[in-house]
Specification:
Layout (H helix, E strand, L loop, with lengths): L1 H23 L5 H28 L2 H22 L3 H50 L5 H22 L3 H24 L2 H27 L2 H22 L3 H22 L5 H16 L7 H22 L3 H24 L3
Helix pairs in contact: 2-3, 2-4, 3-4, 4-5, 4-6, 5-6, 5-12, 7-8, 7-9, 8-9, 10-11, 10-12, 11-12
Length: about 350
């Protein structure tokens, strides 16, 4: 009888002990515990990935989502170690959602950044072309349009550098539209033919030099690019014979771009730092040409130097896209300064 009572009491004690253990684990089985642990470990890797994306884009929305993910993940691990697996699981799920949100926000920004950069480059190329054709024309209406387009493009680059892509796109689009209107007006005024002849001579000379560079280094890719450049040059000549000077100028621009690519390939490419050094030296030479008290020239030079400084900072921060954008903005302002020093007009 005494033995039976002892057995019963031992069974009760064991039952109470097991019940306490299960309660401490929130009623979780080993499979549940392992599943929560795997989820948390996966989150750790996901958050590391999110950190890389956020560092590259530096978007405020992504930064905030990443911070929330890190905080939630830390709390989830605390609850896990405290054997509160149900709450750990809920926190882990929220941490995962925020990490995914951070990555998505960063990717959207990168995609927007690329699209806006291409838009800005197109607008810049068209405006440069408009300046080359109509910049010296005496028509005040054309000059006002050029000045307005130039101002809009400068503001667009500023928005781009501040990662405000919507207004950057809008202003770049306006610049592109104005540049096209100027080119059409110049075509009607008969300015296209003289500009075509001038550009044709320049690009023919440039391609002759590129031909020699590529012959010296024997680059197959460079030769291929140069052949395409020559084809664009021939297309420009055909269009000009038909009196279609605007598309002829576009073909010349394409020939120049392909020739530049061929030459760079032969020379091993142009690094961002080398480009920054070259533009900095060019800016210093231009600075020596500015007369004391010339406010317009000094303003343009200040813009050039600001963009070069920004580019150097972006290089240090290992943000090549932003560095290149600043260099392109510096080049645009430098060309305006050169034009002003040469003609007295922006």
């Amino acid at each position: 009888m005494k033995l039976s009572i002892k057995i019963i009491l031992s069974a009760i004690a064991l039952s109470i002990f097991v019940s306490g253990v299960v309660q401490a684990q929130g009623g979780a089985t080993d499979a549940t515990v392992n599943a929560v642990r795997r989820h948390l470990e996966q989150n750790d890797r996901l958050i590391d990935k999110a950190r890389e994306s956020v560092h590259a884009s530096n978007v405020p929305m992504a930064v905030l989502a990443l911070k929330q993910a890190v905080d939630l993940q830390g709390r989830a691990w605390e609850r896990f170690h405290g054997r509160n697996y149900r709450l750990a699981k809920e926190l882990a799920k929220s941490a995962e959602q925020n990490a995914q949100k951070a990555i998505a926000a960063s990717r959207r920004t990168e995609e927007n950044q690329d699209a806006v950069l291409r838009k800005l480059e197109r607008a810049r190329d068209l405006l440069e072309k408009a300046y080359s054709i109509a910049g010296d024309h005496q028509d005040q209406g054309l000059q006002n349009m050029l000045e307005s387009a130039r101002t809009n493009l400068e503001r667009a680059w500023e928005f781009y550098r501040e990662q405000q892509y919507r207004p950057a796109w809008k202003l770049a689009n306006q610049t592109e539209g104005v540049a096209k209107k100027i080119l059409r007006a110049a075509e009607r005024a008969g300015l296209g033919e003289s500009e075509y002849e001038r550009r044709m001579e320049q690009i023919q000379n440039w391609l002759d030099r590129a031909d020699q560079i590529i012959a010296d280094c024997d680059s197959p890719k460079g030769k291929q690019l140069l052949e395409k450049a020559k084809e664009s040059l021939q297309r420009a000549q055909r269009l000009a014979r038909e009196g279609r000077y605007e598309p002829a100028l576009k073909a010349l621009q394409q020939a120049k771009r392909l020739g530049d690519q061929a030459s760079r390939d032969c020379q091993g490419g142009e690094r961002i730092q080398e480009r920054l050094d070259r533009l900095t030296a060019q800016a210093e030479r231009l600075s020596d040409q500015i007369q004391p008290g010339d406010g317009t020239a000094e303003r343009l030079m200040a813009t050039v130097r600001d963009q070069l400084r920004l580019s150097a900072e972006y290089i240090t921060l290992e943000q090549p896209r932003s560095a290149v954008a600043s260099l392109k903005a510096a080049e645009l302002s430098m060309k305006q300064l050169e034009r002003y020093l040469r003609t007295g007009e922006i």
